[in-house]
Target: Elongation factor TypA-like SVR3, chloroplastic
Amino acid sequence: MEMAVGSHPTSKFTPKALVLSSRNVEPTKSNSIYTSSWLKRQFLGSSLSIRTKAKSSRIPLRSSVKCSVSQATDAATEKKSQLIRRNDIRNIAIVAHVDHGKTTLVDAMLRQSKVFRDNQFVQEIMDSNDLERERGITILSKNTSITYNDTKINIIDTPGHSDFGGEVERILNMVEGVLLVVDSVEGPMPQTRFVLKKALEFGHAVVVVVNKIDRPSARPDYVINSTFELFIELNASDEQCDFQVIYASGLKGKAGLSPENLGEDLGPLFEAIVRCIPGPQIAKDGALQMLATNIEYDEHKGRIAIGRLHAGILRKGLDVRVCTSEDECRFGKVSELFVYEKFSRVPAETVEAGDICAVCGIDDIQIGETIADKTSGKPLPTIKVEEPTVRMAFSINTSPFVGREGKYVTSRNLRDRLYRELERNLAMKVEDGETSDTFIVSGRGTLHITILIENMRREGYEFMVGPPKVINKKVDDKLLEPLRNFQWVFLQIAIVEVPEEYMGPVVELLGRRRGQMVDMQGTGSEGTTLMKYKIPTRGLLGLRNSILTVSRGTAVLNTIFDEYGHWAGDISTRDQGSLVAFEDGTSTSYALASAQERGQMFIGPGVDVYKVVLDTPLDYSLDDCIEYIQEDELVEVTPSSIRMCKNPKLIKKSR
Model:
């Protein structure tokens, strides 16, 4: 096997402020609920009666927060379903695009709710996982709760990256409303659209939080108008469009109804949650029903099912029926029962419908199954998530260094670990490969699979992974691929924010990747340009490093799956070959001094360098290696090392 040591060369509508002067109406100031449904009727020319705008004068908070979703729909819905609404609980999910400050806002909410002592030192509260802290992103959804004026608020923090959209889809089954956090400068981004679309499909109430309002380049009017247009594009109802707007600074822990007049704390945000998010509708006297929406594992308690109790009362020690469908049921017993209070699970004897709880004792419980009444319980609809878009091949480590650093090296170890991942990661799929020691892992994106790889190497696994490949489809004998905004292939929407001086190289790079520009606009005083592309998912593989190189590290790239579209043709993602070691041994300064003239090195010498001056080798991370490798190359992953090598099976075929 040859280990790689280096490389060598070889007119879309643009959102603007809503113009209402043609109807002889003054533009409303973005200081309160502003009645977005009224704007919608003005904007679309509806024949419905016109509501007057909210007054811009300073008025008490309790008088200004008025939400049609929780008021207009309650009576009709409750009468139709004969359910009762619990007013002492609110179940909400915090959703946003990555880096819009969602987790920081939740941390501030917890601190102001006196979850911790005043003298207690706390790091990141919600992003407690090591990988989350290292990467600065939320990977796993987390439950917590606070109490505000005798109302229990169950809060679920969700991932913001599009690759973890499956987590968001699951969590929306547990809540009645969402806080949609939007950056005060960037406005709605690709993941904002995805999470809002899902929330609207569930019929959830939405409170829009314009976060980071203290940024010097904040543009709240643009953000609110763009968000409102997004509601319209997603076919939101009048009631859903009548969303409450809260302006906040999660870092400072302040919120208000006006961007110029924030309160001293997050009181306005808490008030909006209680008044604008409806309580859960329940059948208190109905047969027990709880949908397992998430699974955790404890060394002492075993598998823990987390979900919202839809009907009935759940008690510790109760015998229950566990159903996947009406024809597939088995029996179990609740050994322990927990509810969420502040930042921890608290034991409970009983839980009433409407609350979120954790159940122990059912060792084989799976996500999407229903815990129901033993005699008359019926299953709830199972959880559905969108299909994967990228796949990678996992195989056992066959390098000369196998077994030196890892604990789990056999194909059986690898197989068991990969299939165990499916128990809680619904958006991922695992299939057996062409050989007994190869497995095909499919996910929502390269980051989705890379996080799994990183977790496995930290657990002591040794294995190899191949380059990411796009999952294509055939419809009417036509090859379709996924687009990040394209048509009839795996197409993605790619939004690039880049300084104006680097626009040319970035546009050229995206053009070579078969991207088509659909929108371009300036973003204000920071001198950056926002470009929106439809591009095949294949074109995104390895794009991150390239776009950072041509923009001198200043570009920001965000993508989300759009649709399947027509095959866009071949794409060249790398114009370099690889320098490989031709025998086993330790690298020396003498050898590398000659090799570095032919390309950038990935490794350094095995001994200290004194007289020979060497270029600094490229320090490639796991993500960088996966982006770099091509069809005939592999990444060797061990607990201590990450190496790139040629695929010996493909080398033999080429010979």
User: Anything to note?
Assistant: The two ends are 14 Å apart (CA to CA). The chain is about 25% helix and 30% strand. Residues 10-63, 68-81, 484-490, 607-611 have pLDDT under 50 and may be disordered. The longest strand covers residues 488-499.
